Amino acid sequence: MIASAVFCATVVAVSGRAEVPMTPSGLGTQVELSPVPPSGKVQYDISGGTRAGTNLFHSFGVFDVPINNVANFLNDSGLATSNILGRVTGGNPSSIFGTIQTTGFGNANLFLMNPSGIVFGPNASLNVAGSVTFTTANYLRFSEIHGKAGVFHANPTSASLLSSAPIAAFGFLDNTPSAIAVHGSSLTTEPGQSISLIGGDITLDTGSLATNLTTPTQSNAAAGQINLASVASPGEILALTLASAPNMNGQSSGALGTIKVVNRSVIDASGNGGGTVLIRGGKFLLDDSKVLANVTNPGSVTQGVESVGGGIDIAVRQDATIQNGALIGINVADGTTPGTTYGGVKLTGDRIIFLGIPGSALNFNDLRFTKINTNTVGGGHAGNVTLQATNNIELMNVVELSSSSGQNTAGIGPSATLAEGNAGNVGLTSLHGDILIRNGGRATEAASQLWNSTGNTGKVTASAPEGDIVLDGASLVTGSFEGQGQVGPVEVTAKNLVMKAGLIGNENLGPLKPGGITITLSDALTMEADFTVPAPIPSQSFIVTSAFHPTSTAPAGDITITANNISATQGSLISSETFSSGPGGQLQILTDTLQLTGGSQIKSGSTFAAPHLIAPRGNIPTGAGGDIQVRASGPTGSLSIDGKGSGFFSNTQGTGTGGSINLSARTLAIQNGGTLSAATSGTASSAAGGSIIVNVTDQVRLTNSASITANSTGSTAGNAGNISLDAGQQLDVTNSSSITTSTESPQANGGNIAIRAIDRIQVVDSTVSTSVLGAEGSGGNIFIDPNVVVLQGSNVTAKAVGGAGGNVTFITPLFLADPASLVSASSERGPSGTVTIQSPTSNLSGAVGQLTAKTSPPQVLLQNRCVAKTSSEQSSFILAGRDALPADPGGWLSSPVATEHWTGEDVEEHASGLMVRRIKPNQSPALFASKSEGEILSLRGLTPPGFLVHMFTTVPTGCPS
After folding, report:
1. Helix or strand or coil: residue 866?
2. For 443-473, how does the pLDDT look when each residue is reduced to its tens digit (9 = 90+)?
């Protein structure tokens, strides 16, 4: 609004000063009508002035250039001139609607200073051989000569010290410096020169600034530089860097102004060697416009130079907003110098905002991205893309931040020739805030990628160490698609990472190992789906590396995740798989708690490509699966897998071996169809199942169809894998759960299962099996070692069909199995294995001798009053009816009536009641019960009739037993 108001005001001013648009005001300046003007135009020749060495000074009371007028700075002396410096003293803004040109000055630079403001209209143009600078500063300060710095004041009442030195700074004395506006005009210079606008608020509206007079992309033109600096307080702007400094009164630029580039405006410093764009202000808005610094040819560089070209550097103190299809880009053309890194794009501010146009990957080819891109299609390397904010970085809707090799600037596909240069790094850093990427529609990305290229990618980083990172329909990706170079890493650092239909990818179709993914969080990782994403676009969240190359043995990248809490829901996936001949990657997770629910998975196998990945679908994967290592070492130390399809998988489907799963925690809970799987459904005997190793210090619980499996299910697959389970204090396997290593292939062998626990292993209505269904394979071995083994309606088998049965070994002080349980190592046609139960109390009737005390009458044992008289926590016997006959004479009995742990409190109520365990239909009665104040064995269910004849109390009670 401010720029528009200035524009309108200056139009009125021009119409009121039509007779004399340019007037001199001292310093020997002369303004005369040209006797030979260009056809159809009015030309004013400006001559005279005051010289200081090669600097020529002019002074104007009014300086306007109406439509079809030419302001011609004429070198009437013929003297060599470096800089032409003009000031406007009358107090009115300068309105430029015609042409400003220089004649006879060679490549002299032009400076025009008007503290009251400068406006360029729709037909304004430049015809200057050197660089041009327009400023609303109050003075120009020169570099020092012999310890003294000259100064050129716009106010003629202030004493100027004219100098032959170059300009060092632009000085502002007012609290509100005047604006500079470019409306609909195209201001261009000769190749290799610069354009600078330095003043208050700066607006470029439907206009252009370019450093190439012929065309902005002329292939043989030298690159130039475009400078925009906006101030909103007293101070100085340094000429070379546009940095702020104190003015001659000691005042520093405490506030900077606003720069707006809107309505399809263009800032273009493209040319040989790459141009430079420097923008400095308080706020920056780029709306439906472009900022470019393309490298059209190598320029004057030497092969092997580390970096050339200034690139694009935008730095603001407040907000930088890029929106509505705007583009900031640098394209490195074919033929550029190999090994040379050209300039990149750097955007810094307190807050960085990208507002894209809504859309989704469903109509990807029709999307108009709001983006920053550096790209090479030649031998030179693309520059980096760097965003750094003091507080938030916010991306909304469809946005692209990318660096690529082998892709053209439009981002529409591979280049015609094979690119040799590397893609650059892409980095997002929030020093004290969040990185929020929302509503991306699975199209928004920060990426470094290879297309038709032999170069390497850069790395992609997102860092918010004091805040959160949100990926909502957005991706952080490095990848090689038809490229031959190496894929760089993806690195994420934050307090929390929240992914909603988000992707962190390290996808490799190339022949070299990619850099992998590293995620370091001080708090939580949350992964969930967005079911509003239109099909067939995947709605889940993914953290994936992969190996795709059909002939190379390059592995998938490694994944390392560190977080206090990890929650993956709604089909989320963490994967370091191989889909080709290279092995899967190493997947390491360090956390306190990890939860997988709703079909979410952690995978590191050797499998066919999933639908969400770009991969050759027909290739049979031959690489080995990778390894999964998870350590829950915090104070909670819990791993939880809940729901069908949820779990850890290191499976193999081709000819490679399955990977391994290694988990350590305090507790592990698998339920409702969750699984640990290192299975194989491979197509060759080399496709053996992987191994599963679990080390838990407290408890492992499998319930409701939970499973741990290293099965071999393919008809030609290899041996099943092995399972080692250290359950800490206890293991509970209940409600149709299983721990298995079975095989189906004719010659495959079952894997081994080793289970250890300090206190108890309880298997209820479930299975532990190393059985083999093939004609020749042998069953694996089973080893179980706790203090107590309880089997209820369960099978522990190491069976075989044609081969030998495996061995089953129990080492336990107490082995308890009900009649519905089966322990077997048989083989249908081959030799059976052995079942060994090293348990001194596995048969209590044979292990306990007859007591010498006289057997008490049965009615004595049934008196509830005796229970009430026992003190403290002494044993007591409860009336229990028999619900089944023993399996054999002297065998154990099962009863629905259980014991209660009595502490002596509420004596009457305790003595008068019985605890009855209700047993559901088709459910095995519990042989072993856990109570909140201790674990109590029901001796009534463990001993044969006639054994309970001894008094166990330590004080007289009047009860014989």
Report:
1. helix
2. 999 999 988 888 999 999 999 999 999 999 9
